[in-house]
């Protein structure tokens, strides 16, 4: 089987995706709408697609499964059933090692808390995804850090950087392997209003420059309002329940 992505494939295609968490006595919720105040989270996604270079803002109340969906797309969290195609390949049918390599090549993840490695410099953090993908291009890492305004912070470790600077390192890292898709979980949640607007503009601009699709999760109405395509995850799952 070829290891390269299919050039004409969508960046992301999710179909009939289901994820449930067992209750204490082995029972399971069936849909997200059933959980409401419960701490358990359920995914029931009939279809979700992002074309190459497309943008989508995902919203929903706490407990509706937004972060769970991102983790499922990234292959970090196993699902009960369904298809998650990233750059033309179904992640759910891959073994762990194959999935890790495919994710490193085709997915960039901007975590809410950034998840930079404290023992590594900004430059080393950006190089890590390329290392996992099998080919490190340090000049690209330097170029990305320059693009996000950190050319003078290449060798600083995360604790030596401000929150906004760490956020920009996380963005550069997400773009390091020229992914088909970038997913971002509340990427402006740790920033003030002015910083959030600047970070969003930088995120969108760099994704466009690199031809990446962008799936962004946020509860901030100003952030959500900047996107032409928006999706309420809770509403989508309620519709799925009504059809079943």
Task: Kindly summarize this structure in a few lines.
The protein is of the alpha/beta class. The protein has helices at residues 32-35, 66-73, 96-106, 122-133, 138-147, 163-174, 193-209, 221-225, 233-243; strands spanning 12-19, 43-50, 55-59, 81-86, 89-90, 107-110, 181-185, 213-217, 230-232. The chain has a domain at 52-76 and 101-243: 3-Layer(aba) Sandwich (Rossmann fold).
Walk me through the structure.
The chain is α/β, with parallel strands linked by helices and 244 residues long. It has a domain at 52-76 and 101-243: Rossmann fold. Helix content is 37%, strand content 19%. The strands form two sheets. The chain has a five-stranded parallel beta sheet, sandwiched between helices. It has a four-stranded antiparallel beta sheet with strand order 2-1-4-5. Helix 3 (96-106) crosses helix 4, helix 4 packs across helix 5 and helix 4 packs parallel to helix 6 (163-174). The longest helix is centred in the C-terminal third of the chain and has 17 residues, at 193-209. It is globular. The two termini are 36 Å apart.
Give the helix/strand class.
alpha/beta
As laid out across the biggest beta sheet, the strand order is: 6-7-8-3-9
Name of the CATH architecture of the domain at 52-76 and 101-243: 3-Layer(aba) Sandwich
Query: Secondary-structure element order, as H and E?
Result: EHEEHEEHEHHHEHEHEH
Mean pLDDT: 86
Count of individual helical segments? 9
Percent range for helical residues? 25-40%
Main sheet specs: 5 strands, parallel
The count of β-strands is: 9
Beginning-to-end CA distance, first to last residue: 36 Å
């Amino acid at each position: 089987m070829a290891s390269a992505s299919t050039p004409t494939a969508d960046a992301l295609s999710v179909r009939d995706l289901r994820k449930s968490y067992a209750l204490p006595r082995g029972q399971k919720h069936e849909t997200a709408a059933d959980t409401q105040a419960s701490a358990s989270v359920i995914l029931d996604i009939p279809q979700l697609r992002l074309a190459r270079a497309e943008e989508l803002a995902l919203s929903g109340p706490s407990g509706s499964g937004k972060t769970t969906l991102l983790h499922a797309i990234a292959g970090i969290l196993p699902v009960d059933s369904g298809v998650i195609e990233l750059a033309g390949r179904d992640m759910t049918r891959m073994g762990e090692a194959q999935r890790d390599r495919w994710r490193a090549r085709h997915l960039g993840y901007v975590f809410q808390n950034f998840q930079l490695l404290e023992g590594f410099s900004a430059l080393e953090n950006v190089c890590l995804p390329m290392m996992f993908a099998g080919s490190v291009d340090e000049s690209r890492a330097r170029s990305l850090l320059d693009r996000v305004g950190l050319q003078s912070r290449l060798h600083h470790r995360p604790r030596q950087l401000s929150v906004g600077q760490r956020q920009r390192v996380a963005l550069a890292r997400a773009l390091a392997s020229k992914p088909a898709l970038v997913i971002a979980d509340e990427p402006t949640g740790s920033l003030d209003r002015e910083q959030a607007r600047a970070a969003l503009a930088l995120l969108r601009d760099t994704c466009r420059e690199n031809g990446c699709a962008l799936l962004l999760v946020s509860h901030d109405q100003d952030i959500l309002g900047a996107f032409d395509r928006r999706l309420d995850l809770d509403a989508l799952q309620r519709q799925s329940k009504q059809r079943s």
